[in-house]
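Researcher: Here's my situation. A collaborator sent me these components and asked whether they could plausibly form a single complex. I don't have experimental data yet, so a predicted model of the whole assembly would be a useful starting point for our discussion.
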Amino acid sequence: MTQDPSSDANFTVASGEQITVTLQSVQCNCNTSAGFDGSALAKSSSIPDIYMFQVVGSSGTEKIFVGLCEFMAADPVTAHYTVRVASNQGGSFTVSSVYKEVPNASFQLYFDIS
Amino acid sequence: MKVSVSMRLSSLLLCASAAVVSANAQNHPASPSGADLRTAKALCPSTSTFQPNHLENNADILKAANGLAIQMIGRYNADPSKRPDMSDQWGRLDLAIISAADPSCVAETVTSNKITKAATAQATTAQTNKQVGAPPSSAGSTSAVQKVGIPELLGIAVNNGAVTNNVTGTTMTLSSSPYGFITAFGRDDDTQFNYDKYWLAARIGVSATFNVASSTDALASATRKQVSQWQIKGTFRDTSVRSTDVNKIFRAILQEAADAIVKDASNEILDALYRPLAQPANTIYTQSWETSLQTLVSQAPAAADTDGTQKAAGIANQLLHLLDNDSPYQKVLTQTLAEQTSNLSELIQKYEADNAAYRSKETEFEKAVAAIAKGWNGDILFGQRFPTTATSTMSSSSSSAASHMPDYLLGEVDITCDPKTDTTVNAQRVHCFLGKHTSITGNFSTTFYTSPNATLNEKIFRGAQAALQAQWNLGPGFAKIKSANDKSQMTLSVSGSYQRLQEDKDQSGKRPDIVLGTIKLEIPISGGTSVPLSFAVANASEQVKGTYVKGNFGISFDLDKLASLLKASQ
C-alpha cells in the first residue's frame, strides 16, 4: 500500500490487501463507526477502535472507507481522534486527525486498486 | 445580610441569606438502517433553498462546510507549518450538496439542532443532584450535607493539564489528579486507552486551598503559610463522559444508527456520483489557501467567540463563496446534478433519513449519558485543615497576623444516591430506599489533631461528625412562569447531623455533642433562579450552648441552567 503524497486520504493497494484502520481518541471517549464499500464494519477490537477489511476488485476501481467519530459537548475543543492506516503487505501511514464536532465528525479514505 | 459568592466550575451561585445555618463549620466544606423513504420525506419536507452558485444559503450545506472548517482549524493548529490536508473531508460536503439538491430534503438541520439544544436544557435544568448552594462550611450556606463533586474536579484536571487554578473571592484552589500529571508531562497521551489503563489515577483528585490577598495575582499567595486546607479525594464510580458506561450507552443507542450512515456514505454508487466534485473542490482550496483561507484559519477567534464557532462559520462561508464562484467546480456540479437519477435520489434520501434517525438517537444518547451520575456513588477523602480565626490580609509591604488555630487531619466518607430510572446501561433501577423521587446523601467524618494542646483540653482525637439528607422532588413548581424547556424541580429536603467535639467535654458554656436538624424547600422560579427556604433546630452550636431555631431564605442563580435555557431559545 502506498499513500498519495499530495493527499493523505488516497491510497493505492493491490487487490486482496488486508487493511487495518486504527482510531484512537485523545482527550475524549472513543466511540466510532466505520463502513467500507457499502457495508458497516465490525470492530476487531475496541479502544483503540480497530477496523479490518480486505480490498478486492479489478484494477482501476476505487473503494471507499467512511469513519464516524462521536464527540460529546463536554469534550474539550482540542479533543480529536488519530487515524492510522496499515496494510498486511507493508505500509503504515498516519492520516490527518479528526477534531471535535458535536455530535460527530466523519472522514473518508479512498483505496485505488492497482 | 450576608452575601456569599461561590464559583464552582462553570456554575455561579449567588446566595443572599437572612441568617446562616451550618451543620458543621469545618468538616463540610430504531433501527435507522431500516428508515424507509417515507420517513425520509416526512423528515425533509421544507422548501428547498438550494442554488448551485449560492451554496451558503442552504443550512445542511453550511453545516457540512462548518464541519470542514472545524477540521481545517484543528489540523492547522496541530501543525501551522503547512496547509491542512482536507482530502478526506470533501466527500461529506459533496454529499451534503447533492442531498440538498434533492427537493425533499432541505433546512431540516436547524430544526433538529433546536431539538437537541432543548433536550440539553431540559436535562440540565432537571438536575437536582448539584451542590447549588455554598458548601456547608461556608458562611451563608443553607446546605446541611455536602454532595459528591469529585468527577467534575477530575474532569477539569484531566481536560486542561496537570493542575487547575480556581480563584473564588479570597480563596484559590489548585487541583489536580495523578492522571493529570501522567498525561501532562509527556509520559503518555490523554488517550481513552490510557484513561482506562490508569483508571485509578483518574478517579483520584488532589487539591489545596489557599487564602489569597489578590485575585489578580493569586498564584503569588500559593505558599505553605497561606494553605487553609489540602485534600486527597477518590471517587467510587466514574460518572464522567470518559467512563466506560458511555461506551456501553453508545453501543446500545447510537451504534446501529451510526453504522447505517457509514454504510450509506460508503456506497459505491453514491460515491461515484459525488466523487468527481472532490477534485475541483480540493483544487480551489489549495489555490486559495495562501490568498484568503490561511489568514482566516490562523487568526485568533474574537474575544466573544469563546468556542470558535464564529471563526469556523466565517471560514465555512468563505469556502462556499469560493465554490460558488469557481467555474470548474460549478461545471462539475451541474454535470453531477444532471446525472442524479431517481435511483440515486432514493439512495440520497435514505442517507438523509439515516442522518435524521441518528440525530434523534443522539438526543436519547445524551439523556442516557446524563443519567450515568444517578444511582449510588460516593467518595472517600483524606486531608488536613488549617483553620484561622481571621481572614489573612496581605499587601506588598506587610502581612496581617491571622490567628492560626490548631490544625487537624480529616477523614471523610460521602455517599450519595439519586434515583435511577434509565436502564440503558444497567437494567436495574435504583430507588434509594425511600422511593423513586427521593435522593439520599450521607457524610461521615472524623478528625484528629496533629499537635493537641492539653491546656485547651485537646487530645489527638478531635471529634466525629455524621450527616444524612433525604431530598424529594415535588414537581415543576411554578410551571406557568417557567419556559417549556425549564425542567427545574421543586425539592424538599430533610437533613440531620450529629457532631462530637471532644475538647468541649467538661467545658463550661460548651456542649461536646451538637445535634442539628434542617428542613429546606427550594422553589424554582424561572431561568435558573430559585428561592430556598429553610428552618433549622439545634441543641447548640460550637459557640453557643443553648438550643436555637433559625429560619433562612435566599435566592439562588444557577448559571449553568440559565445558559442552557438561553441556548435552547436561540
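Model: Some features of this prediction you could bring to your collaborator: Chain A has a mean pLDDT of 96. Chain A touches chain B through 56 residues (CB under 8 Å).
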